[in-house]
Write a structure and sequence with these properties.
The protein is mainly α. It has one domain. The chain is built from 7 helices and 3 strands. A 3-stranded antiparallel sheet has the order 1-3-2. β2 and β3 form a beta hairpin. The two termini are about 20 Å apart.
Length: about 130
């Protein structure tokens, strides 16, 4: 499963009474490695003057890789993280994550990072299993 959902939160979801903050907290506690990667790129983006901050270090284990994949493959989780951190996330492979300012989405850096060319150039034999 992607998330460990406390009973009270599941009950609130049944009643359609889940806040974004409650959902994001569930993500934070369920996927701590993914949370640390996203919070790091978001913090670096907001503290620097660049339009992008990225993370390209492979996860320490398959468990952490799975967390990152689950977080970024889910529209709901990814969207919650983007709203919480005020960024647009881009994902190139099993571990390359970038955060962009929403205002930078029309820029060359975002278009280059999310292009098919960049995806192809970012492949290597050690990434085949990811």
């Amino acid at each position: 499963m992607s998330l460990t959902v406390p009973t009270a939160l599941l009950d609130a979801a049944v009643r359609d009474e889940v806040t974004d903050a409650e959902f994001v907290d569930c993500v934070r506690t369920s996927l701590p490695y993914a949370w640390s990667v996203v919070s790091d790129v978001a913090d670096r983006l907001h503290s620097g003057g660049a339009e992008m901050a990225d993370h390209a270090t492979p996860p320490p284990s398959e468990a952490e890789r799975g967390q990152l994949l689950r977080a970024l493959a889910s529209d709901a989780i990814r969207g919650g993280l983007e709203r919480h951190f005020g960024v647009k996330l881009a994902f190139q492979n099993c571990h390359r994550v970038a955060a962009f300012h929403p205002s930078a989405l029309d820029g060359d850096r975002y278009r280059t990072f999310t292009s098919p060319r960049a995806q192809l150039l970012n492949q290597s034999p050690e990434l085949v299993n990811c």
